[in-house]
């Protein structure tokens, strides 16, 4: 056997990577200024990612930063979630001690899932909010730690990361906006095959402008020479450099291995295969050291010394000597915490594992499992269950593996690691078939508190259906909805005989949620099936949950008396069986339906009380929905100032509880109420905040809808169209809820009106009227009808608007008569709609608009008030009015102008200013004596004004040429010039602008026609 020559296999000289270090140093400088940084470092195995990280961390420490490093381990694929994040937090806890505990104050119960040293974890909430809450609180902890110091966190080997770690990192990269923090992550790029789970993660990061990617290339010949000189302490000969460069192809690790092997005398003993190259130094170890290395390889990426000692079976002195040989050969290294050992390079470990015989692997896994079972204290408590499950499973012992895997799945669920939990449960389903009945019957059921209602099985053995139910929930919460649906189908086939209607009802309810989430329907058929199954059965938690789900569905889709009765029944049943979470959900639905039914005060009081109650309880499964629905209900009855207050409180409360999607929905509510109050700049900030936080499609769509409404009010038509496209895409077509569909149709209608496309206006109106306005939809329907009536009034005189005009106005009137207007805000809208319809017919009067203005003044709608004042002034200044009317118009016109300017309503302000110029009425500044005509002010020549008048009348270029005695080509040139001067994209938009600015009277346009 060759003796080990103690050579230095890691170069003390850092070679190359100047460009990469410059990028990292710049990121550190920006972080020190308070701008969080995220960097991804990719490269093939052995290219030098770890060495670069070590160099950067050393430089960061020298600059005064606090650093921590964590590594992903292959065990993560077997259910060890958040391993690198837990390692980082543990390292920070060792360095900062009480400072970390202070930063975690108030968050300990949740963060203990990642760092048990913080204390006892709170009871988990098994829904989407619990997991996001953990992510949000982790972000807050890092923000607090990095508030007054620079913090550098490195996570290595992301290609081995569990799904939960990837999702947590994605959340951190999106949500950290102000902290002295650098997060650097490495991954092995040559391992990222087409179906590798890291591939979509990297694609997502590429869309984030805040995350930078660095790709490490291999060394060139000069860098290989510098590396070899650092390893050997002297300049190598050129022939040796050429040989090593050719064999290593510039891979830093292979350079190191070759240089070391050659220094040890292995001139010709290296195999051409990569595995043999990696194993050459392992094979050169003494017998005991080689044995310990093989045992360590099967234990995982890192192995604790006590566990290694228990499995190796060597005397302490003998084991220490073997480890000394392995460390001296640079095969093993002590772990960062000094409690165990790891391979210096993962490639070597992989080669050692691959070299083990199949029986040898099974035997080593069994020995690890037996040692850990005999003494659980050999590993950290937060890793014990996952490690034991993995060892027993790979030891091919189904009887031992099943309970271990089930225990590990419960631990993964406790940490909100649902993807890892699902993999463990699928492994349990596999093991279930391999175990005899007596082993299955020995397994105890899960604690279904909020996951899977008990169905009367608490004191019985775990059943196959219980296992399927837990798998469904884990798959659903981890975002693997297709897999959840497949498991549900399997369960429903097993329940086809009808012997267990409660369990069947539960599975049908989950199927309905998934069908809706996957865009394959609205979920009603599945909920109906569940409702049929529980009808006539004794009270149960399942029955209460089904009724609560049905009531909630009805509230959003078909509110009315039947939904009200269902919600009441759900509340009663939930109270009877003690299902408090279900009761709170049902009460919230009932409060909303009370508001819709006319009991505004009672419904709002119920919802306000629920907000306080769920905050006090910390019930995150209801808390987000409570504040979102309460603020929305206030806005729906016109209490916009109170709605803003409720939304702001909701934003703060759900932030405290780490519910980012509920924050996004609260910001959407806030934007809606601020738009109503004419605080458009603040509304834009709220909508952008919602977009930044939103994880789900519906909040993203709603944020886009708010921004579209804002852009329309400002006259930014291209921006409005972009946002409308986003809203439609995210809302989809599978779940048409009035709260989403009606506003989108209103914005579509308004955009078409602004561009002079009256046929498109009517098409959007037809679609809305065909769908109908269910009870409670008046808050969305009145603004739509107002937009439609205004569009018809503005298009009066346009030839394209004349066909079917009377019928369209009649349909708007009919729809308006069917809408309730009992509340002041909707009574005001009703009066606006009626007045606009009369304007569309040329029958509106100044007295009418004065009454409308008086009706709108008491409600919190400054834009609508400015519109009514503008119309009032316009009616007072109509042709044929006397001087007294002109003087009366000055005040409403000035008030409308001030409001439009304050709000930022560009088109409305322009219309008011044009009317003021025509009437020679000041709006704050004295008007000059030689005020130009509006068309002249737009830069139009007399001939272009004649052409525009005919364009507004719907004439073609040929007809224009005939009318003005010019050639069609000249007419075409005039039309092009007019479009450019007006800044519009087509003839229809030019005509609409001309009518809106009253450049020509309706009579003149008609005469031209």
UniProtKB/TrEMBL annotation:
Signal sequence region: none
Domain of life of the native organism: Bacteria
Pfam families: AAA_16, GerE
SUPFAM superfamilies, A to Z: C-terminal effector domain of the bipartite response regulators, P-loop containing nucleoside triphosphate hydrolases, TPR-like
UniProt KW Nucleotide-binding keyword: yes
Domain HTH luxR-type: 933-998
SMART domains according to UniProt: HTH_LUXR (SM00421)
UniProtKB keywords: ATP-binding, Nucleotide-binding
Gene3D superfamilies, per database record: P-loop containing nucleotide triphosphate hydrolases (3.40.50.300), Tetratricopeptide repeat domain (1.25.40.10), Winged helix-like DNA-binding domain superfamily/Winged helix DNA-binding domain (1.10.10.10)
Presence of keyword ATP-binding: yes
The protein, known as: AAA family ATPase
Organism, scientific name: Streptantibioticus ferralitis
